[in-house]
Structures are given as C-alpha cells and as structure tokens.
User: What shape does this take?
Amino acid sequence: MTDTIVGLGYDIHRFSETPRPLWLGGVKVHDTKGLDGHSDADVLCHALADAILGAIGEPDIGYWFPPTDASCEGICSLRIVEKAVELLHAQGGRVVNADCALIAEAPKILPFVAQMKETLAPILGVSPRRVGIKATTNEKLGALGRREGMAAFATVALAVPAEA
Assistant: This one.
C-alpha cells in the first residue's frame, strides 16, 4: 500500500549585478542577466527540491548544500533536485507529478518550457506531461514587480509506502 503526500517549495533570488547565465529548470535562458546565489541560483530547481524534501520530512536544501560550503559554489541545481529524489527513493517513494510556477516580470519563459520539462522529467522519474511549468508576473508590485529578482513555487505529489 502507498500513501500520496504533497510538498510545497518556494525560492527567491535577486538578479546578479555581475554577468552570469540565467538558469531555470536546468535550462540556460539566453539574452538576460542571471540570478545571484551560491549555486547557479536556479529558483525553479530550488523550489522543486525543497518541495520534495519537505514532503518527506527532510531538511531543506540549505542543509544539504550549505552556502558556506565552497564545494557547492556554482553547483548545477539539477544536482540539488537529484539529491532530493535520491532521498525520496531511499524512503521507498517516487514522484507522481510536479507543478511549478515562476514569478517575474521578465524574461518570457514559454520558449523554454518544453526543454525544462524534458530536462527535469528524467530526474524526477516521470513523463514530461507530469511536470507543469508556468510563469506569471507580479503585476509590477514589490521587488519582483520592479524586476529586482525572480521567485518560484513548486508543489509535488509523491507516492510513499503507507505508514502503519
């Protein structure tokens, strides 16, 4: 028997003052400035990993990949998602689906969504149809509305062994 559990993740990063690539969902998004962070600052991957980790009762990504650890500097955030999935599998669980939302005034992400889904699906062990990625603006309100950064939410449904 299995239980279905749900996780929610959130992440936010400001745009970098120095040139660096913008990574979203493991995909390099061209013609824009990147986000500031110790890793590659992929907000979508960070939110997704935290959604998985939270659902299975594990510490957040800062525990597994601390910003004080020099070996994590510039790490590809797909590795962070892989770690979360590895911990899920160690508990006998699997991903059922993931649904992610990016919040930013720019850039437009629709041209990159299919590639993000194709990149994340094999790591999650699901079909690209089971990975939702969408974007919305912050209607020019607050720091995100002023184009100071980008945020992401992610929810996951996981199948795990039923508890007695």
The longest helix spans residues 110-124.
